[in-house]
Amino acid sequence: MRKTIDWNSVSSRAVRKGISVIGLVALAIVAQADPQVLIDWKAPTKPRSKMATFSVGSDRALIFLRDEHQRDLLTLQKAIGFRYLRCHGLFNEEMKIVRRNPDGSLSFDWTRVDKFIDQLHAAHLKPFFELGFIPEALASGKQTIFYWRGNVTPPAKITEWQQLVSEFARHIIARYGLREARSCYYEVWNEPNLDGFWTGGKDGYFSLYAATAKALKSVDSGLRVGGPSTAGLAWIPDFVAYCKTNVIPLDFISSHAYAAMQGFLDENGHGGGTVLDTSPETLINGFRPSRADTPSKLPLFISEWGPSYSPRDPIHDSYVCAPFILDKVRLSEGLVDGLSYWAFSDQFEEPGPPHTPFHGGFGLLNVDGLRKPAFFAYEMLAKLYDREVKVDQPRVIATKQGKNLRIVLWDYSPFKQDAPNEPFYHRDLKPTELPPVNLEFKNLPNGTYHVKWWGTGYMRNDVYGFYSKMQGTKPDGAHLPASVLQSLEAKYQSPESLPDVVVTDGHTTLALPMRTNDTWYVEISRK
Questions:
Q1: Based on the number of CB atoms within 10 Å of its own CB, is 486 exposed (0-12), middle (13-18) or buried (19 or more)?
Q2: Number of Cβ within a 10 Å radius of residue 14
Q3: If 322 and its partner were Cys, which of 296, 338, 456, 525 is the partner (CB 3.0–4.6 Å)?
């Protein structure tokens, strides 16, 4: 969630049952020959990009001490396996880190920080540390942001901030080891170009960054520090120039980008009017110049991204979010080195605790751990093999390992909106039927293959769609009754197996039913 900002500037069962094996080489009879996707087993391959699952976001560090948050984190990791996690509030007052002694010196208590990091490690995640906000004992003012009151003023004494940072780094090394500490990332602050997040201005942030980088490197030169962590890909050229001119350590560039082209939401949850930017170049037209502005040897991380910067936007719950994610991830490959989707759970309290089960929260999972279509988009990407097969179509990713194939394909046809996301994406948005997609396989090794598939779309693994059509289920609060949760869980569609196909001449064809904004995952395994 961002403060006010102009972001312009900165298959049915019946269809499945109709599929059959014809002779030895055909998996499906297709009424139409178009569109056709050719997957040649002998086509050139390349390493599959892993930048989509580089990182994922969350609310703030303290929330990881709650059992239900860890429950959902483990669900996420079992299905997807992100490598890093980034969240706010590492140094928030609620973390109880800093205490000023009677003599004016500082004492540090890392108990809650350790619990947070230990929860990440239990889920096989590494921290992408966001160093902020200011503990009250070090703050120069009282301005805070969000329900949980992160102090956004500069440190009263930069030397005390440096002491906090260096003591933190020493503690991480002492507790987790030098190798682990060096494998983390240390990002300085969050969105300092927005006055709601930082009151010190651009020059003040650059000075804060320099002091932080020097403090970290004074402990160990191998700790990776970066920024500017701005909203809307701002300040990158000036930040790079500042670090170069002043010989300030810089190990990565980070910034944020969302596909909302108007509207706002403030730290109190007030605002609205966000509209999904549906132009094909959305996000990508910002990533290209940011890549060019990033020194060639440094990684560029988009440490927050998604369809909207508002945690009260129904696009996050919609089935359209799944193909949006697949489309933007695909187009971002080669431009950025890591994406961090904001965020993994609707247990997210920037504007306060949520009050309804589906409130347009950022999460891949809702407050009860129900998986949204966006969750399945990431699960599809995570299941792909490490070698990608060259395919001409832009909305198909084919991968292989041994004699097996895993494929993700999708349609992304965002609706033409006549209203902001709220209320537009609360409507019953029915898809348009499209011609089946023919997957034609060429030069497959002969043998018997097992085929299974699953996907998302309107009323297919579409938990908000299921919920919106249920009668008498509107709870008084954020959490659903156990009976309703059980009913919604039962509506998820598991991967479905098709009859085995025998290939004798290297060819076979699979037809997939397709509607607008459908996504499919297909797995073909040699028996």
A1: exposed
A2: 8
A3: 456
Encoding tokens for residue 404? Answer: 């097996």
C-beta separation of 271 from 255 below 8 A: no
> What are 496-499's contacts with CB under 8 Å, separation 24+?
496/16, 496/452, 496/453, 496/454, 497/450, 497/451, 497/452, 498/16, 498/19, 498/27, 498/451, 498/452, 498/453, 499/20, 499/21, 499/451
Location of structure tokens 């348009």: 432
Which of 304, 350, 388, 523 is catalytic? The answer is: 304
Catalytic member of 130, 160, 191, 379 = 191
- C-alpha 306: how far from chain center: 7
Residue 428 CA to residue 446 CA, distance in Å, equals: 46
Query: Cα–Cα distance between 116 and 176 in angstroms, integer?
Result: 13
Asked whether 257 and 9 are in contact (CB, 8 A), the reply is no
Q: Which amino acid is at 399?
A: T
Q: What are phi and psi of 57, to 5 degrees?
A: -105, 165
- For residue 17, CA distances in Å to 20, 406, 455, 497, 512 come to 8, 22, 16, 11, 12
Structure tokens, 499: 């009859």
Closest CA to 399 of 45, 2, 27: 45
The span from the CA of 318 to the CA of 304, in Å, is 19
Cα separation, 407 vs 396, in Å, equals: 7
From CA 361, how far away is CA 445, in angstroms rounded? 46
From residue 484, give the alpha-carbon distance in Å to each of 58, 69, 255, 370, 426: 26, 20, 39, 11, 20
Contact 372, 366 (CB under 8 A): yes
Write out 404-439 in H/E/C secondary structure: EEEEEEECCCCCCCCCCHHHHCCCCCCCCEEEEEEE
Annotation says 191 is catalytic: yes
**Residue-by-residue pLDDT tens, the chain, 527 positions:** 333 223 233 333 222 222 222 222 222 222 333 488 999 999 999 999 999 999 999 999 999 999 999 999 999 999 999 999 999 999 999 999 999 999 999 999 999 999 999 999 999 999 999 999 999 999 999 999 888 888 999 999 999 999 999 999 999 999 999 999 999 999 999 999 999 999 999 999 999 999 999 999 999 999 999 999 999 999 999 999 999 999 999 999 999 999 998 776 665 555 678 999 999 999 999 999 999 999 999 999 999 999 999 999 999 999 999 999 999 999 999 999 999 999 999 998 888 888 899 999 999 999 999 999 999 999 999 999 999 999 999 999 999 999 999 999 999 999 999 999 999 999 999 999 999 999 999 999 999 999 999 999 999 999 999 999 987 767 778 899 999 999 999 999 989 998 898 999 999 999 999 999 999 999 999 98
Q: 55 - beta bridge partners? A: 84, 340
As beta bridge partners, residue 99 has 107
Catalytic residue status for 489 = no
The one-letter code for the residue type at 522 is V
